[in-house]
Amino acid sequence: MKHKTQIDYQQMQYWNLVQSLSVPMLLYRKKTATLVLANHEALNKLAIPPQENVSETLDSRFRQLLTEGGHTQWDQAIERCLKVGHSQFRSKLQLPSARVPSCKLDLKRFEEVEESWIQVEVKNLDEDIETIKAREAQYRTMAEHFPNGLIALYDQELRYTIVNGEGLRVIGMKPEDLEGKRLRDVFPPEIYKRDEPALKAALAGETTRSIVPFGPQHFRIITLPVLDKSGQVISGLIMSQNITSLVNAEKQLQNTVQRLRLAINTAKLGIWFLDKETQCLEGNDQLFKIYGITRETFNDDLQAWQKRIHPDDQAHANEKLAEIFEGKTIYDVDFRIIKPEGSIRYINASGCPAYDADGSVIGWIGINIDVTAIKEREEFLREIFNNSLLAILVADDQGNYISVNPAACQLFGYDEAAFLQMQVKDLVIPDRTSTDDRYQQFLEQGEEVGEFAFVRPDGERRIAQYHAIRIEKDFNLSILSDITDKKEASKARAKAKALAIKNEELERFAYLASHDLQEPLRTIIGFASLLKKRFGEQLGQEGLDYTNFIMEAGQRMTELIKGLLSYSRLGNNLKLIDVDCQIILEGVQRDLESQISEANAHLEVGSLPTVTGFPAGLQILFQNLISNSIKFRSKDIRPLIQISAELESDKWIFCVADNGIGIDPIFHEQIFNIFNRLHTRQEYEGTGIGLAHCKRVVELLGGEIWLESTAGKGSKFFFSIPA
Fold first, then answer.
1. 3-class DSSP assignment, residue 294
2. Contact at 8 Å (CB) between 156 and 232?
3. Please, is 294 exposed, middle or buried when counting C-beta atoms within 10 Å of its C-beta (0-12, 13-18, 19+)?
4. Cβ distance 124 to 106 under 8 Å?
């Protein structure tokens, strides 16, 4: 504990200091709330009684000086001071001279060992009124003319006293909309809750800076305290500047930078910078990724970087790099690198000098791109180009060929060297439209599809179909195919269609003719039969013979007409199904049972397949071939008929062989023609339509029929059916 003499000495020094101050100062004892000291400024300006009367209580003395309404503030200030150690408030003091000055009272508490004191500092605010008015005039003048923003002055209650500037008009307000009002009286909660802390901070002596939005506008706000002569805060000042254009520019710059960064990342660009002085090489993350190394393991000198280049490409890459060091402004080179794990990548490197503000070269900057995928794609396209079955030609805008593939050389009959000496017009057979005019029209339109005739060096005329596309300037691509055979096939199909129409007309004619011919034949046969029956005795033998001749001829004519009608109808409404030839042959054997028995014929039937066909046609086919083998048999040999089938590739080959009279080879072709006979009716009966029927059935099934035979040695009839 301090000695009392020492304490009294320190207290005396403090009181002497208070007496020397130029501002009114009062000192109260906390316990008794009594005034123990008033300096000379307090006695003079506040009419404090002489020193011998300072023992009056705090409440009784100052409540006489405080105007109405100040008592409550004073009590609250004392209570706050005792609680937190300091407080202040504003009030008017009622002096005996009837002057009512505006004062600011600052209360501070301090402790000694045995006592607690409250120090009251009184500041007369009226003395600064003229200064404040002059300053407000300055502020108002400045605010009225403040460009691209606003200036606002506000008091201790956060009420605006001065507001003006171009920024007010930007947000659609006038000075009178704000002056005399608080922030919360005008703006919604989201604004005053955001901005009031800065205003209060200025009244506490702090300066704050911020950027705030107001609708589409952006403002830079500086809030700072306004001080009086003694350094005390008397109000707050707001200086606002409209920086919308700057914010938008920054956003645009940020977007540009972001897009650039995105483009760099998307394009996988490795950015590098080579410092001229240090020869150190710096790069972005993508550059290290391209080379398969890390920043930690990389020695950043140029030589270390060059060692990554493939040995076969180092000389060329270093030569190009030396050129940029010698002053060339552009560096562009392709080379291969070897990554640490041994893989080889293709790189495109480019760059240019970097300059300082004085135009001096400080280094070189550029990019590396991994173009391995492009190189591989180029190689893939080159393989397609060289191995394509379609002819591919590339010509410039003047019509000169600059590249052709092997298929083009094969199509047109020229080697590559000869092609590259030719123009488009040298291939095309001229027509009524000039080739030069057509090519110019193609260049304008950018695409053309068509065909043209050309003549190969050996004189063969061919037709090519083409699709030409203008890729870019001096690069026009044409893809061609030979359609000569297709054209011929198209002509053949047209002829076949015309023939089918004629056949259809012929079938209709045959049907109508056979139908109409049968009626008079029936009449002739009927009257001949009636003549023989009624007048047979009168006609005599010769008359009867003539009558029989008429009837037999009519009957043969009827059979011929029926055969013609059957032939014309064969294949109508054709519907192909799976047909078991074994079952078909069993049915034919039953139908020919009497004929087989009469001739004592022997049939040997092998294993027969199931084919796609129509049952009626196959029945006619087998029946005619077997019937002919029985009919044209040798008189002294028992008929033997062998039926078999073998699969060859994609078709079944059927054979019907006999040991009959055989057929001379000179007749092998004509026997399949309709109504064609090799023997007289007296020798062998028939209409001459059977084999024609067989040929038509086989052709309808997509096969062909032929025979192997020699006169007197039997016959082998073959026919094919697709498997």
1. coil
2. no
3. exposed
4. no
Contact, 716 vs 656, CB < 8 A? yes
Looking at this protein, which amino acid is placed at residue 670? Q
Query: What's the half-sphere exposure (Cβ side, CA atoms, 13 Å) at 389?
Result: 1
Q: What is the pTM of this model?
A: 0.35
Q: DSSP assignment of 84-150, as one string? A: HSEEEEEEEB--TTS---EEEEEEEEEE-SS-EEEEEEEEESGGGHHHHHHHHHHHHHHHHT-TTEE
Q: Environment class of residue 62 by beta-carbon count within 10 Å: exposed (0-12), middle (13-18) or buried (19+)?
A: buried
- Residue 299: phi and psi, rounded to 5, are -85, 115
- Are the C-beta atoms of residues 178 and 186 closer than 8 Å to each other? yes
Closest CA to 302 of 285, 277, 284: 277
List Cβ neighbours of 672 (8 Å cut-off, separation of 6 or more): 691, 692, 694, 695, 705
**CB-hemisphere CA count at 13 Å for 621?**
31
Q: Which residues pair with 187 in a beta bridge?
A: none
Calpha distance 453→499 (Å, rounded): 28
Cα distances from 105 to residues 37, 39, 190, 211, 235, in angstroms, run 16, 15, 35, 36, 16
Gap between the Cα atoms of 33 and 59, Å rounded: 8
Beta bridge partners of 455: 461
**Could you give the CA distance from residue 105 to residue 124 in angstroms, rounded to a whole number?**
9
Amino acid residing at 339: K
Q: pLDDT (tens digit, 9 = 90+) per residue, 616-671?
A: 778 888 988 998 888 888 888 899 999 999 998 889 999 999 998 888 777 767 67
Q: 3-state DSSP call for residue 464?
A: strand
C-beta atoms surrounding 718 within 10 Å: 16
Distance CA 208, CA 236 (A): 11
- For 664-688, the pLDDT digits (tens) are 777 767 677 654 544 444 444 544 5
